């Protein structure tokens, strides 16, 4: 009988979470490399380049791929003949592994988990608890699959109780465009079908842990209905033209996964869960011989990709910038930003809204007049770093604050990830402001453009505090210009038509 020791399990979880914070799965890197060389839209190609460069930098520097180091999901398959040498529960051991990984001083990971979600939403400070799924299986070993899932992609999960006669592919292809780009494509979509509502969701999440193998499936052809659906959706989703970061292009997904289970005759539950460009997961097995040994991939296995400022790139000094200066910026234009910006996410915007509603002034050091706000919650710095990985968060969460910020604070522009909603775009147009898009999934690369960093307000909010960053040549794209022209609308529309023309449709 195999005996699994508590310390071996905890150490394995902690090591694995550190491992996936800076190592992309190589099959995903290789899929992105194929997408990069295939891509014809310069904006999308540059976004994929940033993601790949960031991936290699993270692997070299052992720092997080993305500032959102995720909520931990852990699938634990326990052999019926395995025995535990502990009185702790599996949940307790997983949480202790999470705690050690996320508070590791050599590579601290961002604590994003809040308790009392319907109330105070207080940060637990160590990213616990994780979400643990336990299954008893045959054998005497313990198989563990760990993932760190970012909030931006998790928030785009969609669920539908279809009628038995409804077509799954049709619903998925109608739904994916509604998900926007906040899930940071190009990535992977997991589709769970059958069982009950909660079973379909678990199937979808678990499917994302499988290897990227769509090209092998394309070569050999489908053997069953699930594989037929994978092929149809892979083709159909990419034909939507959404592209990398939603700016339009040839690759929206590098794979589509499907898992199914028997269901009630009257039901057809379907769940879509996307994995973003910061796909992070690892598998290991414990057999009683000690902690898992995770082999580091070779850096030579990463593609050598470089990017340089193109001829049309505009360099912008943000210090002394005026509203008149931004009126010449056009949607789709590439900028390199230098100067000082302020940061703010959900909690900081709520604080600002409360202060202004009471007629109070903003904290000392917080002056948005003719300035830009960057939607970010960075990882803590280590060593001689100015700041840890600091990629953008999903901008639509700040849409409800946009009119207030532009009307009452003197703000002239925002930097974030993915698209803006209609109300935010209307506010941008009304106030002659702009919205700039940074690449989600390139957090370590973005952090290298930050030369100085200091907290200026709300330090008790941790990563959601307001920082002042001094940046140099931070790459962004004008996503919404002062006239309200929106790249996230125009780009996919253009490339959907181009793809149809390429295929002779």
Explain briefly what this protein structure is.
The protein is α/β, with parallel strands linked by helices and 505 residues long.
Structure explained in plain terms:
There is one protein chain. The chain has helices at residues 6-22, 26-38, 42-61, 90-102, 151-154, 168-175, 197-207, 214-220, 225-238, 346-357, 399-408, 422-430, 443-447, 487-502, and strands spanning 3-5, 71-79, 83-85, 114-115, 122-123, 131-137, 142-149, 158-162, 187-195, 253-263, 268-275, 281-286, 314-317, 334-343, 372-374, 413-416, 434-437, 450-457, 466-480. By secondary structure, the protein is an alpha/beta fold. It has 3 domains: 1-146, no CATH class; 151-277, 60s Ribosomal Protein L30, Chain: A (2-Layer Sandwich), CATH 3.30.1330; 314-491, Fe-S hydro-lyase, tartrate dehydratase beta-type, catalytic domain (fumarase, Alpha-Beta Barrel). The protein has a 5-stranded mixed barrel. A 4-stranded mixed sheet has the order 6-2-7-12. The longest helix has 20 residues, at 42-61. The protein is globular and about 75 Å long. The mean pLDDT is 96.
